[in-house]
Recover the amino acids of this structure.
């Protein structure tokens, strides 16, 4: 059974930083494509960042590009989201997602329906 567990959320002032972690179990992490999504109250879940299973290729939503950084540590079965220069509009529940198979080892997935597994989410609140 696959489990994704997020951690690192919390309350931070605008301009501050947080680092989210996601620990995966029950899947072959080294060949899984990973992503982060977020959902604010009353809004749909949206793409934030993604990383390929190999070669470290990344992609970001325009709203976070240059402020957020996604990375992974295959030895620890973990994916991270470093969030800097946080804004109140970044307030949301952040979800980790995994896709076990990839078209190629450098392929990046940015759509919700492309992911097989989801974590329970971690709340990030940015105060103004």
């Amino acid at each position: 059974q696959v489990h994704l567990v997020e951690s690192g959320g919390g309350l931070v002032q605008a301009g501050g930083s947080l680092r989210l972690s996601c620990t995966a179990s029950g899947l072959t992490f080294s060949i899984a494509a990973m992503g982060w999504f977020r959902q604010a109250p009353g809004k749909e879940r949206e793409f934030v960042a993604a990383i390929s299973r190999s070669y470290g290729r990344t992609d970001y939503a325009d709203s976070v590009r240059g402020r957020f950084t996604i990375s992974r540590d295959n030895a620890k079965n973990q994916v991270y989201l470093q969030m800097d220069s946080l804004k109140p509009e970044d307030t949301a529940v952040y979800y980790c997602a995994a896709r076990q198979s990839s078209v190629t080892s450098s392929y990046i997935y940015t759509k919700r329906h492309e992911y097989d597994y989801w974590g329970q989410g971690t709340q990030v609140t940015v105060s103004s």
